[in-house]
Amino acid sequence: MKVLVINCGSSSLKYQLINPDSKEVFAKGLCERIGIEGSKFEYEVPAKDFEIKLQSPMPTHQEALKLVVDNLVDKEHGVIASVEEVDAIGHRVVHGGETFASSVLITEEVMKAIEDNNDLAPLHNPANLMGIHTCMKLMPGKPNVAVFDTAFHQTMPAKSFMYPLPYEDYTELKVRKYGFHGTSHLYVSQTMREIMGNPEHSKIIVCHLGNGSSMSAVLDGKSVDTSMGLTPLQGLMMGTRCGDIDPAAVMFIKDKRGLSDKEIDNRLNKQSGFLGIFGKSSDCRDVEDGVAAGDERAILADDMFCYRIKSYIGAYAAAMGGVDAICFAGGIGENAAGIREKVLEGLEFLGVKLDKEVNSVRKKGNVKLSAEDSKVLVYKIPTNEELVIARDTFAIVSGK
Q1: Exposed end of the chain (fewer CB within 10 Å): N or C?
Q2: Matching Pfam families, A to Z (predicted)?
Q3: pTM of the predicted model as reported, rounded to 2 decimal places
Q4: C-alpha of 206 from chain center
């Protein structure tokens, strides 16, 4: 089976044509700056080491997706003879609210339910819907499947997802913790369970660390807590997001600086985190360079980031009554050896013992980072959200 995986943002479109069974990626790429001057298109065929990068006008997602399809079926560098070879299309949808606890075949009713959750993800869900509508128009008759970022975390108990607000804020407004990066947390925790021999019982902490970062406590294969909340703003300090802070601090800053609702939202989401503390960049690599150069604000940002990750590990270990494995994923989790070491330092009381030599060497694939006598497994596991989407799509379309 060939599944076209689509991840549609407000001005971008990531795609992969993939075999969910063999994991083979036939082609992949990215459309950037859709609807903006200077639109960019990337197309790659991994098996042939072939790549195209060009600027091409893409006023809407329809032109972007047509460009994707045209290259997939191109006589010289295409990977399929026609779109008829695409068996199904899997879409990443950010917010499923409480409506969707698993992936679903997309119908008119499903699209209406996704639209009903637009208030919970105003920047993402409308763009995701745009991608769905565009695929249905360009490839009529092909089954489309929605795979939700929030679905994996729908197994959280009420004690984890409820906020201590007036109860009607939950019943009437659906204000609660939803969590995100669900496909990544699912893939990484499943991979870790496979490495462990698929035990009946397991306690796994997943650290998905990137420009957007989140953590999860996965008990016996199910998410029982996660760091992101109603929106991706809650939880860890991130590239430009503040993460956990006193809500009263928000009102204090807003009042003292005379900011509008939009301005304070922008301050919390786009001017905080690494960027807010370091001041020079939101990129963790730049922060690490600053640490090496002795920049005090870079050191502070690095200390804060690692401290908060460590705090969540301690909290989740307590919540699950221990921990069997800690997994690092995402751009930072997979590549920043120094951050991994700093996060795990001082967790020996939990039974964590890092093999510092192995941790310091960059290797591809799943890598065991814990020492042989460590009571807790520590692994670096590159996430593969596209494969999760492709597998879910295949399972739903084939009825398996």
Answers
A1: C
A2: Acetate_kinase
A3: 0.92
A4: 12
Residues making up the annotated binding site for substrate are: 92
The DSSP secondary-structure symbol of 370 reads B
Parse the chain into domains and list their residue ranges: 3-148, 198-380
Rounded CA gap, 249 and 267, in Å?
12
> pLDDT at position 212, please?
92
Give the chain's mean pLDDT: 95
Q: Are 205 and 386 in contact (CB under 8 A)?
A: no
Instruction: Decide if pLDDT at 122 tops 90.
Output: no
Determine phi and psi for 118, rounding to 5 degrees: -60, -35
Strand 325-329 with 377-380, pairing:
parallel
Q: Which fold has domain 3-148?
A: Nucleotidyltransferase; domain 5 (3.30.420)
Structure tokens that stand for 369 in this block: 């980072």
User: Residue 27 — pLDDT band, cuts 50, 70, 90?
Assistant: very high
Side-chain-side CA neighbours of residue 90 (13 Å): 29
Residue stretches of the annotated binding site for ATP = 14, 208-212, 283-285, 331-335
Segment holding 382, helix H or strand E = none
Cα 395 from chain centroid (whole Å): 21
Is 264 in contact with 253 (CB distance < 8 Å)?
yes
Q: What tokens were used for 229?
A: 């909340």
Give SS3 for 95. Answer: coil
d(C-alpha 175, C-alpha 17), whole Å: 36
CB 393 within 8 A of CB 376: no
Report the pLDDT value the prediction gives residue 53, as an integer from 0 to 100.
94
Q: What average pLDDT score do residues 24-42 get?
A: 93
pLDDT per residue over 251-275, tens digit each? 999 999 999 999 999 999 999 999 9
Extract the annotated binding site for Mg(2+). Answer: 7, 385
Vertex 158 angle, CA 155 and 163, to 5°? 125
Residue 99 is encoded by which pair of tokens? 């409506």
Domains 3-148 and 198-380 equal at CATH topology level: yes
Q: Which two tokens stand for residue 78?
A: 């295409």
The CATH number of 198-380 is which of 3.10.450.50, 2.60.120.260, 3.60.15.10, 3.30.420.40?
3.30.420.40
What distance in Å separates the CA atoms of residue 384 and residue 168, rounded to the nearest whole number? Answer: 38
Tokens of 339: 């951050």
Closest CA to 6 of 22, 23, 35, 27: 27
